[in-house]
Write a structure and sequence with these properties.
The chain has 324 residues and is α/β, with parallel strands linked by helices. It contains eight helices and 16 strands.
């Protein structure tokens, strides 16, 4: 362990999120809406909920990404054009941010957290636990990984298939093989001094923090984007349902007095009309996103209830005297 000549001071942790404007796989992906928010905003919010992260900086060359990042509470460092091309490394963006802090005569952080905004399934716990692991193991760098159980192959110089992580003549069952890990491409943690010296995310003693595959996924193309949208929506629905006071199997509503103001308007021909509130429709739409079944049951037989429910795309039963 390191020896300190004075009292211990809190470790300062800076999270940097590189987010350039150019993207070949998915144009403008860093500001595309996914699960209701710009992609870069997801990682900013994840980092802001990490208890061990003190500051968040987004490195970008793009005015729109800059505006979005500031709106969600991140500091922005303008990345120069020469560090924003397709061949520019992420490390160059991190080093540029640190140089920017030096030029402003601001203290450098003790620990640097490099976050990829293309991995929005990352959690704040993933970040905190990776930082803690590096500290607990007295390591120099750390990363998030996921368990990997698949067989990798490549072609040799003659074009024949050869095993990379296995002997092709011995087919071991999964439980017989040593666990391997896939770099998640989401969270990297490093001591700032060592990073400035080596200029690479991996150096010295490197440790791995395994996470559930549920927290893993990167966006490189439109298919990835659509899959990630579905996975994020499912996670949001699970969180929303967990906020309900009791396990809920369905929502059953009356129509009169629930979806109306409990008044009836009669025209000259005696036809009944009702006043509905559009905000009810917005609430119903939010509930539908949780996949919670919604049903309206009304004693009345008039078609108003059916018409309103058809517009909201929810089930409706009218003329039911024995309501639950």
């Amino acid at each position: 362990m390191s020896q300190h000549s004075g009292p211990l001071r809190p470790q300062r942790v800076l999270a940097i999120i590189p987010a350039r404007g150019g993207s070949k796989g998915v144009p403008r992906k860093n500001v595309m809406l996914i699960a209701g928010q710009p992609l870069v905003a997801h990682m900013i919010q994840i980092a802001s909920h990490a208890s061990l992260v003190d500051d968040i900086i987004v490195s970008t060359d793009d005015p729109e990404i800059s505006a979005v990042s500031k709106r969600y509470g991140a500091e922005v460092v303008q990345r120069p054009v020469e560090l924003s091309g397709d061949t520019s490394s992420s490390e160059s963006a991190l080093l540029h941010v640190l140089d920017h802090l030096k030029q402003q005569q601001r203290p450098l952080p003790d620990v640097l957290v490099f976050l990829q905004c293309t991995a929005p399934l990352t959690t704040s716990d993933d970040i905190d636990q990776t930082i803690s692991l590096m500290n607990d193991e007295d390591a120099d760098s750390a990363m998030v990984v996921v368990p990997f159980h698949y067989f990798l192959w490549k072609k040799d110089s003659q074009g024949q298939a050869i095993g990379i992580n296995h002997d092709k003549t011995v087919r071991l069952m999964r439980q017989q093989r040593q666990i391997e890990y896939l770099e998640a491409g989401s969270v990297y943690v490093m001591k700032t001094d060592g990073f400035c010296q080596h200029k690479h995310r991996f150096f010295g003693k490197t440790v791995m923090h395994p996470v559930s595959p549920q927290n893993h996924g990167e966006i490189d193309d439109l298919v990835d984007f659509m899959v990630m949208e579905t996975r994020l929506r499912a996670r949001q629905q699970k969180v929303q349902l967990a906020l309900l006071p009791h396990p809920t199997r369905a929502l059953i509503l009356d129509f009169d007095g629930v979806m109306t103001d409990n008044r009836v308007i009669l025209d000259a021909n005696g036809q009944e009309m009702a006043i509905c509130d559009r905000s009810d429709g917005m609430g119903i739409e939010m509930l539908k996103r949780t996949s919670l079944p919604i049903v309206v049951i009304s004693k009345e037989k008039y078609p108003i209830a059916a018409a309103r429910c058809q517009k909201l795309d929810i089930e409706c039963y009218t003329g039911i005297d024995d309501k639950p």
